[in-house]
Automatic annotation (TrEMBL):
This is Oxidoreductase. Its cofactor is L-ascorbate. InterPro entries: HIF_prolyl_hydroxylases (IPR051559), Oxoglu/Fe-dep_dioxygenase_dom (IPR005123), Pro_4_hyd_alph (IPR006620), Pro_4_hyd_alph_FE2OG_OXY (IPR044862). Residues 108-201 form the Fe2OG dioxygenase domain. The keyword Iron applies.
Length: 210
């Protein structure tokens, strides 16, 4: 039985683990060359001034507070020009459809952005689904840290019911977790790159409505 589940395709293990534990770690979701390309793209965009300081809260309640989070973000267009980004968006779209068919999650849309955590930044313990972001059902993070090693920091601490799971931000790894779960980005000692997103139970163009 154990053997069988080890051999099951990642998508099936993802469904089981998400249902049972609320999260799934999907290694090698994309190839290392794709990781490199996305990282280069993020770096170029950053140099061109397309990233902005991430904040907390939405619209009139938006504020930047470095004691809570220190990352810079750039929202990703749903129809991106870059072919690697385009195929990642397609894979997330397929994953959303598959989750709907198997888990009846009623996912309607998703939103996603690049995130860069400069050296010595973090994101304090929080949840992604709250009053102002009530439509976030599943969070996903694709890590783009090609040279990551122990001691570089920037791990994701995920708070499960009775334990804390420390997840390394390894290149090509996709982390999925329920958006109401508490989590935290630990202090990054080296710049940390990722694509973060949320699958939503409402069409994004309608999320300004209650
Ligand atoms: O980058 C991560 O590991 C998690 C980021 C996060 O929690 C967020 O952007 O809400
Ligand atoms: Fe988060």
């Amino acid at each position: 039985m154990e053997e069988q589940s080890k051999q099951a395709p990642p998508i099936e293990r993802a469904i089981d683990h998400l249902a049972e534990k609320g999260y799934f770690i999907w290694d090698d979701f994309i190839s290392l060359s794709s990781v490199q390309e996305l990282r280069n793209l993020a770096e170029t965009n950053r140099e061109e001034g397309n990233f902005k300081k991430a904040g907390i809260g939405k619209q009139v309640l938006f504020q930047v507070d470095k004691s809570i989070r220190g990352d810079y973000i750039q929202w990703i267009d749903k129809v991106p020009e870059n072919p690697v980004l385009k195929s990642f968006i397609q894979e997330i779209t397929d994953l959303k459809e598959y989750l709907n068919q198997t888990c009846y999650l009623g996912l309607k849309d998703f939103e996603t952005h690049f995130a860069i955590y400069p050296e010595n930044t973090f994101y304090k313990k929080h949840v992604d689904r709250f009053q102002q972001n009530a439509h976030r059902v599943l969070s996903f993070v694709l890590y783009l840290n090609t040279q990551w090693q122990n001691g570089d920091g920037g791990e994701l601490a995920l708070y499960l019911e009775d334990e804390q799971k420390i997840i390394e931000p390894l290149a090509g790894r996709l982390l999925l977790f329920r958006s109401e779960m508490e989590h935290e980005v630990l202090l990054a000692h080296k710049p940390r790159y990722s694509v973060t997103g949320w699958m939503l139970d409402k069409d994004m163009s309608l999320t300004f409505l209650p």
